[in-house]
Amino acid sequence: MKPAFLQTSRTESFNMWRFRQLMNWYPMYFGTGGKILFWSGDSREVHLRLRRNVWTYNYVGTIFGGSMFAAADPFYMLMLLRILGKQYVVWDKTGSIRFRKPGRQTLYARFEITDEQLDTIRQAVAENGQTEQTFTLDWVDADGVVHAQIERLCYIADKQHYEQRKNDRQQSRFHR
């Protein structure tokens, strides 16, 4: 059963349900020990669960920090790609994790991208061709106690701008 803080008014479409099922069985994600519980039809909200088990516990019996970091890895990038569409390029650029409390029980994460964040991104890309956006999420227990906080920095660009910059970089390497 999901904790109350994972309740949402958004719904999951059949396509996103199918995508979630595939992601949960994708070997690179499955190996993290994480499980995607919900992916909204508009890709603006995703919920994860990470249990302490034989795949995720460390030497001292708590959830391995690498599992927390890896299980939360691709989501902001994937959400942005699905929301913004094919005219944008999105890359994860950096990530960091800060541990607050050892995870001895099941942890949950909620990813959400707001209208304000999307407006800021679209405006910055329209003005500069590209931007970077930092997102923060918490791994929390069923009582809402934060066990780890993760920051992800995403690079977002207009596809034409990105391709032009890529071509300029390649030409400069060969014309020295």
TrEMBL record:
InterPro entries: DUF4442, HotDog_dom_sf
Transmembrane segments: 59-81
Keyword ATP-binding (UniProt): no
Highest rank taxon of the organism: Bacteria
Pfam families reported for this sequence: DUF4442
Keywords annotated in UniProt: Membrane, Transmembrane, Transmembrane helix
Name the UniProt record assigns to this protein: Acyl-coenzyme A thioesterase PaaI, contains HGG motif
